[in-house]
Amino acid sequence: MGVRKELERSIHDYTTSLRRYALVLTRNGDAAEDLVQETLLKAIAASESWEPGTDLRVWMFRIMHNTHISERRRHQVREQAKPMLPKPVDATDPTIRIELQQVLDALDQLPESQRQPIVLIALKEMSYAEAAHALDVPLGTFYSRIGRGRIALRRIIEDLKSKKPKLIVCMEKSK
Q1: Are 24 and 64 in contact (CB under 8 A)?
Q2: Which end of the chain is more exposed for a tag (fewer CB within 10 A), N or C?
């Protein structure tokens, strides 16, 4: 029998023990279930690294423990980074929504060759080299396109800001 088949057959014997241990680690039922599921996925994915004849229970508990520690570290890093993160944009403020819509409209006015670099850098958070590779252009060409795109985008937005907004008033007809 293949290692993976033997592992899949034997895993079911330990799920109850894994659930109990996960509950001890997380102290939360939902988080424990997530940890068990993640552990089982990792165990099946790494089935070739398990050596038949060794204690499967110990191997799976080690996977669970390491997964839990990794998640705790990830959580600590996120918590430590929170003060450094920018404040979220208030989507309920109508002026911010209008400005955002103006930027998106201005972006639509750019030629595709200038729009794509800006989108990849600003929205997809790619590095310049990654974005140039994604667009299949030399890095110098990419720099040129993003520079021209930014200048054009600034001009469009400045033109929009210099124009006075139109106020539309809707009035009900009196009966």
Answers
A1: no
A2: C
